[in-house]
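fyi for ur records
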Amino acid sequence: MKPFHCLPLLVLLASTYAVSGQIKTKDEAIKIATDAIHKFRLTTIKDECGVIDVVEKTTYFEIIVRERHTQNCGGMQETGPRLFNMRIRKHDGRLTSDVYDGTSYQPVDHIPAK
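which gave:
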């Protein structure tokens, strides 16, 4: 699987995952991140104009959310600016993000919707 994923394709992933419990795969982490992006309206860009990169760490998955620049989405196609990062703990699925201030990770359900 390529390290970059388009958001529309992510919505088609398996719909079952453990909200509380172990997160074992990148696909489970992507599903949780995508659901949170929609539920908490973490960005205003359209799904097809967003890209997710997943990096597996020892205790969590790091999700990097970027803009996807195309003819339909606009922007310079050579660039993909980072919007925010998310971290999903493997042992319990706890989700935090730096979406609020760009530096400190806070629980997503406590972050004011943009």
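The two ends are 31 Å apart (CA to CA). thats all i got for now
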